[in-house]
Design a protein that fits this description.
The protein is α+β, with helices and mostly antiparallel strands and 362 residues long. Helix content is 17%, strand content 25%.
């Protein structure tokens, strides 16, 4: 049966006019069947580039099938996005969340609480991140309890940003889903912004929208800019603290010196353009991780442009962390405004396949 693609139901908080092409629920096909039906897979790949998120509901999958579905979009992918050797990751801010399925090391188990006898794991204590362990400031406990107040823990894209390139696709599969009243995300940055979210949500934003809403001078900067990331970037920020929105690091000199990181090689550091061009739609998408960047390289305006105005018209190399973070805050913070965030309401056996169009937060 040929798959069909239906728009996702959005909450009233979302500015739907900016998300008319964002996200689709796939019906009429089991996700594993795209592996053996070339025409259905072609439609699925096209839809993922067009819509950023594809949702399958109510299907049972094995870890092997979950990995095979992701690998179908990038046949060169052989490991989890941060690599399969998690012994090397014990010094990073990610180590407490990495729980590997033994027979399928490309698939991780994430969540909170104790899980027993799951896919070869006899017992594992899952730990979900809480903003009090990572943010510079915290919401008082009484406000959490009285108002259901919470924060976005950490906005991110699923990428190691050292040694490995970002995956084309990530697949999240809901096996057990927390039940309870909604929470309210407090941005805590003086804006007064807040957002009601389902318990246990994964929040998504659109890289396309983040670029589209930029003023022209920042669009010009973005198309000329490249981001360079730290070696072992998540080890580099292990002692640093995040801003209250979960979308950046406070500049107070707490990053680990390069000389104290695990052994690293300069050629394995990653530098990527601020933008990527969608091969199906031709749209430009903003994709920069604001927490782990160390340098911005900006090309000059083309020589035929005689009016040398805007941001860094002659180009340059920006290496001051405070300046870098101020630039990224000005460019990216508007893109996580409450009316531009899709907080996904998880159901048991949801499979969300996410392409490079989107960034997410827990």
């Amino acid at each position: 049966m040929s798959p069909t693609f239906e728009p996702l139901p959005f909450p009233p908080s979302l500015e739907a006019s900016r998300f008319q092409e964002f996200g689709r629920e796939v019906k009429g096909i089991h996700p594993r069947d795209i592996l053996t039906d070339p025409e259905s897979f072609r439609k699925m790949e096209d839809a993922l580039y067009r819509h950023g998120i594809l949702l399958f509901r109510g299907f049972t999958l094995t870890p092997e099938e979950q990995y095979d579905i992701v690998k179908a979009f990038d046949t060169s992918a052989e490991q989890y996005g941060h690599g399969n050797d998690h012994e090397k990751a014990t010094k990073t801010v990610l180590h407490s969340y990495l729980n590997t399925i033994p027979r399928v090391p490309q698939v991780q188990v994430i969540g909170h609480g104790t899980v027993r006898n799951h896919e070869g794991l006899e017992e594992v204590k899952l730990k979900h991140g809480h903003h009090k362990t990572f943010h510079r400031t915290q919401i008082p406990l009484e406000d959490e309890e009285k108002f259901g107040a919470t924060r976005f823990f950490r906005w991110h894209m699923d990428a190691a940003l050292y040694n490995f390139d970002p995956p084309k696709v990530t697949a999240l599969y809901g096996i057990r889903v927390p039940q309870g009243p909604e929470q309210v995300v407090w941005y805590g940055d003086g804006s007064g912004d807040e957002l009601a979210v389902p318990l246990g949500t994964t929040a998504f934003v659109s890289g396309k929208t983040m670029f589209d809403i930029l003023p022209d001078e920042w669009k010009s900067f973005a198309v000329r800019a490249r981001a360079r990331y730290a070696p072992h970037p998540f080890e580099w920020i292990r002692n640093a603290k995040a801003v209250s929105t979960g979308f950046g690091i406070v500049s107070e000199g707490l990053e680990t010196p390069f000389t104290e990181l695990s052994p690293w090689e300069e050629q394995k550091r990653k530098t990527y353009p601020f933008l990527w061009k969608n091969p199906v739609t031709g749209n430009l998408h903003f994709q920069v991780h604001p927490m782990t960047i160390t340098d911005i390289f900006v090309d000059p305006l083309p020589s035929h442009i005689t009016e040398r105005k805007g941001k860094y018209p002659e180009g340059g190399h920006i290496a001051d962390l405070k300046e870098i973070r101020a630039i990224l805050h000005e460019m990216q913070r508007p893109g996580i405004a409450p009316n531009l965030v899709y907080p996904h309401p998880w159901y048991v056996l949801d499979l969300s396949s996410v392409g490079g169009n989107s960034g997410g937060a827990n």
